[in-house]
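Revision sheet: structure tokens.
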Amino acid sequence: MFIKAVPVVITGATADGTIVFVDLQDGELVECVQPLEGPSVVRPLDNYAEIAVDGDHSALLQERSDHALVTFRCRERHEPVGAAEFPSTRSAYFRAYGDVATAYTEDGRIIAMDLRTHAVLANLKTL
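Predicted:
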């Protein structure tokens, strides 16, 4: 007997207890946000993604054919507040420090964003 299993990528829980993950529903990839209180949120995804969690914040990490895309999320309901694209790489990473988030690549590119004002604080490359 064969069982068709669909992996659910549970990426973690935020410091406030919100569970954030990517799932397959009705054959479509979706991003799911389940707060401790209030309704769950399900958003469609156009491509495979992972969700990174750091403290109360999260980000959607997507590998595209010619670039990496990081979509920053706000603390409340983990709604998208901004995105960073990194051409010529397929991997990017996410960290949060209070209400400032960074996205970075292995070759030294860094973008910092204020998650409250949505202002870009830094866009640089280390040597």
